[in-house]
Amino acid sequence: MDGKPDTLKPSGGPRQKRRYDDVFSVVRAMEPSYPVYCLRPDLLTKTAKRFISMFPGTVLYAVKCNPNAEVLNALYQGGIRHFDTASLPEIAQICETYPDAHAYFMHPVKARAAIRMTHKAYGIRHYVIDHECELTKVLEETGGRDIVIIVRLKTEDTGDSLYDLASKFGAPPDLAVELLRAADARGCKTGLAFHIGSQCREPKVYRKALALTGEVIARAGVEIECLDLGGGFPANYANAKPPPLENYMAEIRGGLKDIGLNPAVEIFCEPGRALVAAGCSLLTQVQLRKGERLYINDGIYGSLSEMVQVDIRMPVRLIRLKGEASETLRPFSLNGPTCDSLDVIPGTFELPEDVREGDWIEIDQVGAYSNALATHFNGFYPETFVEVHDSPPAAES
């Protein structure tokens, strides 16, 4: 296994993938001067199985979080058959790779051509809306037959989430009631959805959001077919240890019981970060040291943009091929490879005090919103993936 390339045919077509026992084996075999994503497919599969076993309904993976083919394959092996998709390319990727999978068009604002093509070519039935004009658009482009209109409800309590996803999308309760009635009157099946924000750190928020959905459903007087609880399920980071997943599931089960839904109603959720964050780390190399400033070969325009947008701190560890690193740690800043002076990761990272040019730094918990957000700015672009089978640094800390 160690360092031996395997020719596989994962989703997306033939490619060559390298498998290694651990990240240290990657460094010894490749000595990479470029960033390397270290995927842990076994962990991804295990995480998917656990989440599916705990959630009282159908789990839709949010493809936008990490659309890498090997990530999708690992989740598929874990039992994921339903996918939260937001565009024609995402829907095509899922439907053409996994014939038995189901994609849902969960973007509240869609191009007419995308609606028409996804319905005609891929048989998509579920469409999210949060405005009357979007309802008209979907009905006109699909013909309105055998489709499910899911109204996205705006929720106010974000539960200390890192991202407030209600600021851009979501219908206030009064409008949500009107939209449900309008879709029902047009002969569509209906559903309701909400999203309390990404990286939610307060499980009780789900129960509060469910109480609001119960009120909207009762006021609308419409029999819904599905209820989508969105995403928001958190991951562990160096500076964020959220409550265990069991707490979230308990609040969800309690909230569902409180509103007394018809047992025939399908319950959905759309986890992204919680499924994939721990399943990938990033191997970077130190290219220069200036005192307490380290210049590495990835940064905010590549895999690490999320640490600029919100207060997320990834665990790090030093890897050195020759000689032992100091056991004394000091704070260092990490500077990205581009010529932009903004390309600096906020805060500092604890690393051995003798870190030097040529050392490698493994940055853990980067499975979510890393390669999915990477750009080609200044000619730098992380694109190398390998498979490893060790425990990630976060699990050992």
What report would you give on this structure?
This protein has 397 residues and is of the alpha/beta class. The chain has two domains: 4-40 and 277-396, Lyase, Ornithine Decarboxylase, Chain A, domain 1, CATH 2.40.37.10; 41-276, Alanine racemase (TIM Barrel). It is built from twelve helices and 18 strands. The chain has helices spanning 23-30, 41-54, 69-77, 88-97, 112-122, 132-142, 173-185, 204-220, 245-259, 273-276, 306-309, 393-396, and strands at residues 4-8, 15-20, 36-39, 58-62, 82-85, 102-105, 126-129, 148-152, 189-193, 226-228, 266-269, 280-290, 293-296, 316-319, 329-335, 349-352, 360-363, 384-388. The strands form two sheets. Strands 1, 2, 3, 12, 13, 14, 15, 16, 17 and 18 form a ten-stranded mixed β-sheet that branches. Strands 6-5-4-11-10-9-8-7 form an eight-stranded parallel β-sheet. The two termini are 26 Å apart. Residues 1-15 have low confidence and may be disordered.
Summarize the SSE layout with pairings.
Layout: E1 4-8, E2 15-20, H1 23-30, E3 36-39, H2 41-54, E4 58-62, H3 69-77, E5 82-85, H4 88-97, E6 102-105, H5 112-122, E7 126-129, H6 132-142, E8 148-152, H7 173-185, E9 189-193, H8 204-220, E10 226-228, H9 245-259, E11 266-269, H10 273-276, E12 280-290, E13 293-296, H11 306-309, E14 316-319, E15 329-335, E16 349-352, E17 360-363, E18 384-388, H12 393-396
Parallel strand pairs: 2-18, 3-18, 4-5, 4-11, 5-6, 7-8, 8-9, 9-10, 10-11, 13-15
Antiparallel strand pairs: 1-2, 3-12, 12-13, 12-17, 14-17, 15-16
